[in-house]
Amino acid sequence: MQGTNLKKENDWFDRPASRRLLWRLLYGACAVSVLLEIVLIATHQRHGHFGEGWPDGWWFFYALLGFIACSLMILVAKGLGAWLKRPEDYYAETEETTLPEDIDESLR
Amino acid sequence: MNPFAEIHPALILLIGALFVPLFRGVWRSAWTILLPVLALAAVAALPSPGEGAQWTGWTLRVLPWVNEPLTFLRVDGLSKAFAYIFTINAIAAFVFAFYVKQSGQHVAALIYIGAALGAVFAGDLISLYVFWEVMAVASTFVILARRTEKAKGSAYRYVLIHLLGGLFFLAGLAITVAQTGSIAFDGFDFDTAQNAGTWLILLGFLVNAAAPPFSAWLSDAYPEASVTGGLILSAYTTKTAVYALLRGYEGWEPLIWVGCIMSIYGIIYALLENDMRRILAYSIINQVGFMVCAAGIGGPIAISGATAHAFCHIIYKSLLWMSAGAVLYRVGKSKCTDLGGLYKTMPWTLTFGTIGALAISAVPLTSGFTSKTIILHAAEHEHLFWPWLILEAASAGVFLHAGIKFPYFVFFNQDRGLRPKEAPLSMLLAMGALSFLCLFLGIYPQPLYDILPYHVDYNAWTVPHVIAQAQLLMLSALVFFLFLPMLKRTATISLDTDWFYRKGGDAFYRLADKSLNAINAATSRLFLGKVVNSITNFFESGLPRLACFFMTPIWKLMGHDAAQIEAERHSLFRRSKIGAFPVSITAFFAVILLGLLSLLFKTGK
User: What are the sequence ranges of the domains in chain A?
Assistant: First the structure.
């Protein structure tokens, strides 16, 4: 795939500099979303829906929920994967030798 | 009043499907687009009874043994909202499928969509059941249309599970009609209408809603369907089930927990999955979980929220299936381990797919944000903290598995040297139109709110809500990229509940083989080896032996010695072998036999 068309190709996302920029943007966006809540708290607009004592009124509740819930789900999936994952030929199905008819004709 | 004053939208598709084979080439494609356009017009032309009111038409007394007529066209806010999105999605799907030349697939798909419309307009249990089963059969043909061995296998399993679900429904229907004497399909009351009948019908609905453990059919079959087949299937079966749950089982509390389990289950399996279309299939289960939960919560907010969510979900889920379909069409591969780096040559597919991915994640400015959050609002309103928390966590998880994982592993990740062409124009047009709807309904949801079954006084666009949602999603995104090494795809499948019938079926086959064939072999040994042998022995030497047994004492009495007895015996055996007994003996036996026969006939009289 090292052809002449490689030059005009858009490879922005493969560049290390772009990746660094994207990481900074991600951290920045997280920081902004948390900072905005501080503005809410300062202007007394931060209320829980369930009333006093319920966790959804805690400061930075949604940031915590997002972080913890997603980490947990990935860990649980990883753990279950060790138990549930099988090789692709587990059910011993016949693999197609030709591409199905719904695939682009030029590939066949 | 003339009950047939209105055109039944389902009939347009069901009858129109039969004419598809008469057309050729682009005319056929144009015909398949025209049909859902006409159906949409027919839906729009239906009367709009006010909130809580119904309009019924197409009442027919088709079954002479049922006292009530069947109602084929019940129009109210709920059925009309689902009919709108069913037809809009069908238009987009057939624009996308413009290039498909196989007409069998179009016929099956149109009958399937027509039956789905028939099911949401069905005003009683019997007509609902009929369309329910037509959907099951037609959708099986949509899966089979890919004509691969895998598609055949999963279509076979698919139809078995759906026939099972249909049997639950039928059994429940029979019990309910026997108990109440009515075929009406309105809301069953959780406090007063709980019985074997209603629970069986609920079970039948949940099979179609892909609730675990009856969920594996979805992730098994949809990804084996063709590029367009998967896209069409993704919208109708589960959403018709959602409609039926919203109509019949509003406020049934167990559904809250069924929905919560579905929403988490879908995420965990989608995270484990390698095939991009299977990721999207599990994501359907996750999304339908929200709607099932809403049915369990009940009340105007939850029902309207679930309807709005179903509406938007069908759009962005179709969009995601389209972008995955376009990639599959151009690359011929669907596994994350084979894909990556496609952003370079398929930027439009990437853009539209990403809009779908953001919408499913309920990012502000997309339709998920203005629809899914109504369900969360309903949970808050009913003060259901734990279900609310699970759904919020699931919302974060949606961003992980569908919002980021799908586009990341397909379009970015590792460049595998794939340089496919951009998707064909018809596909881009369809994706563009649905992307527009995702953004439009995210920014200006009022047209959607106006067609919901109940008026909702809900505004997703409050500052605290937007900030909360942004926090939830940004931190989820951060977790995704921090945990990326753990999410590396492997060329594996994950065991799901279909293991029980796939491996179980194999085991049953082997068990049957071992046990029944062993019985067969033993029987063969016993009969052919022993019984038949002894019978032939008996006829060969049994009679002279018997004769010897009786004759030996007589010979002894007659004073024969051992040598003489042996000679007598020998001659007896010899004569028996060649059948040379004196005629007198045969005649003697014949007389006995005739005597017995005459005795028998005498008593017979």
Answer: 4-87
